[in-house]
Design a protein that fits this description.
Length: 481
């Protein structure tokens, strides 16, 4: 399969310079994508710039109707999205189905926001003046997306800015360009006008940087690593662009003593091992009240050891490969280093096959170790014991990140006590920390990012407020006795 960029409603440069896309499950080439340059970004931005006033001038109801049609079309043609998800991102069938199902939900949630670009009227001290506040789109939004949920995260960063009347140029991860081109083609088939959504495939240094710098791009939505996000954030801010950064996490799960250890272990296993831990919100630091520590760890090891690895199309396969050899090196490096520093390896700690890493449980890694402090982004979970909830909260907050946290307990009072004190963009009670809701404000504090995405929060981020003042003449003077 060989694909070009998608610019102004058409696939372009299919036969130009390209790069190979690997299937991480077989480690063989599964396709080729056009290798974007600064000139391709310039072309895509110009197409988005031309289309933006026409898109904004459609009525909110028309934008809503088109986005709803896009959602229906994605649903009808979900197979054509599932295939690249399986092949280029190493998703299991259930993870690919989840993404293909979530994409229409996001579009529908966004469609409704087209009608809710509320402004304001303000009181004024002078009776002959009126003040109005209008909400308007930024213009062209640049979207840069990661490899791990290449459909769901891309459409999320695209759908809400579109609903608000912006147009978009997207640069997907170089690991997963083909699903992005397929998405653009489907949205266009469904009636999204030419130039409203453009995709340039390629590498950050070849074309991603140009998207951030481009003078006609008014805002950037970025999801990816903290290292890249901090560079993009600095550059975008230097150029006075609106920027939203959804970055990495090192998410804590606090397990309180009132919960059944087996129930807690089942939750922790889903939150830690889904998609091989290649999830920003995966719960990789588990902090357990000591009275149930032994039972909980035994149950977690049992959960990990019963996970089935293997064919991605087998509905019983828990997760597939990591995205590349570098990822395997990083994950195994974190594990072996922690073991050398004194962590107890309860299960896993080896490459299962190819780029698939075995589900791994480490107990009591040193608190300075990389596996405890840095984003491992693999199927590795570390567990430590604490005497009580206060120490648990302190340990959970002892991180530069703050994306998502979980408290596993049936005691709502203690759970809420922890939720309010956790320094985190989200806290989930009674559930693992990898949760989704199209309308929720997703985002982090500290090294986990800036701004919130989802529902009206995305719309607020990618619109500008305009104050309009009117001279309206004085109303009749009020008379009091
Ligand atoms: P990454 O930062 O390596 O790459 C993300 C995107 O940035 C890619 O499209 C890449 O090509 C592009 N890029 C790289 N250098 C660039 C540059 N100089 N200028 C412009 N673009 C550039 O991230 P990844 O490895 O694809 O994804 C994994 C990371 O994403 C993890 O850290 C994970 O936690 C994070 N993530 C966060 C969220 C969230 O919602 N907070 C969600 C998913 C993933």
């Amino acid at each position: 399969m060989r694909r070009g960029h998608f610019i102004n409603g058409r696939e372009r440069a299919r036969n130009g310079e390209c790069f190979e896309v690997l299937n991480p499950a077989t480690r063989t080439v599964m396709g080729q994508a056009a290798r974007g340059s600064d000139a391709d970004i310039d072309r895509a931005v110009e197409s988005a710039r031309q289309a933006q006033p026409r898109w904004w001038n459609l009525s909110p109801g028309e934008r809503e109707r088109i986005l709803l049609r896009c959602a229906d079309h994605l649903e009808t043609h979900s197979d054509s999205l599932i295939e690249p998800l399986l092949q280029e991102s190493g998703s299991t069938l259930s993870k690919a189905n989840f993404e293909a199902g979530y994409a229409p939900s996001l579009l529908r949630a966004a469609a409704g926001e087209a009608r809710r670009l509320y402004g304001d009227t303000l009181p004024h001290d002078r009776p002959d003046r009126m003040s109005l506040v209008l909400r308007e789109p930024i213009g062209v939004v640049g979207v840069i997306s990661p490899f791990n949920a290449p459909l769901a995260l891309l459409i999320k960063m695209v759908a809400f800015p579109l609903a608000a009347g912006n147009t978009v140029v997207a640069k997907p991860s170089e690991h997963t360009p083909l699903v992005a081109i397929q998405l653009a083609e489907l949205l266009h088939e469904a009636g999204l006008p030419e130039g409203v959504f453009n995709v340039v495939t390629g590498f950050g240094s070849d074309c991603g940087e140009r998207l951030v710098e481009h003078p006609h791009v008014g805002g950037i939505a970025f999801t990816g690593s903290t290292a890249v996000g901090s560079i993009i954030g600095a550059e975008a801010t230097r150029r006075m662009k609106r920027v939203q950064l959804e970055l990495g996490g090192k998410n804590p799960v606090i397990v309180l003593s009132d919960i059944d250890p087996h129930e807690a272990a089942a939750q922790v296993a889903v939150g830690a091992f889904f998609h091989g831990g290649q999830i920003c919100m995966s719960g990789s630091r588990v902090i357990v009240e000591s009275s149930i520590f032994e039972d909980f760890t035994d149950a977690l090891v049992a959960e990990a050891e019963q996970l089935q690895l293997g064919g991605l199309r087998d509905p019983d396969t828990a997760y597939g490969p990591l995205i590349c050899q570098d990822a395997i090196n990083r994950v195994d490096g974190h594990v072996q280093e922690a073991v050398a520093e004194g962590a107890v390896l309860r299960t896993g700690g080896f490459v299962y096959d190819g780029w698939t890493y075995a589900p791994t449980v480490l107990v009591e890694p040193p608190l300075h170790s990389r596996v405890w402090r840095e984003e491992t982004f693999g199927p590795v979970v570390s567990v430590v014991a604490v005497p009580d909830i206060e120490v648990a909260i302190e340990l959970a907050n002892d991180t530069e990140y703050g994306l998502s946290a979980a408290v596993l307990s049936h005691d709502l009072i203690r759970g809420m006590h922890a939720a309010r004190r956790l320094r985190s963009g989200a806290v989930h009670l009674g559930m693992h920390p990898f949760q989704s809701n199209t309308m929720a404000p997703v985002g982090g504090v500290g090294a986990s990012g800036l701004g919130r995405s989802g529902g009206r929060y995305s719309v607020e981020h990618f619109t500008e407020l305009k104050w309009i003042s009117l001279a309206v003449g004085s109303p009749p003077a009020a008379e009091f006795e």
